[in-house]
Amino acid sequence: MLGERIRELREAKGLVQRQIAAELEVDTAYISKIEKNEKPLSRSHLKRLSSILGISQNELYILWLADRISNLVKDEKEAMAALKIALKNISNK
Is 28 exposed, middle or buried (0-12, 13-18, 19+ CB in 10 A)? Predict the structure, then answer.
């Protein structure tokens, strides 16, 4: 989710991975792995990346959080049941 969206926005702005990497002061390989969903984006990079890509920080944060949740439960047999309970608990707050 997040990686694909980052790549999509980067390409739409005509930026290459090394430009994003330089702005975030990380390796180009890190950006490549993020875009391929092989490595999670650090939360500390969200604000700067949202500015670079011209996307709201909130939209980027939601995708970041959704990826974290998905990665946490993706291999769990009862993931959907647990997510339904979690959603109910969140909705009640």
Answer: middle
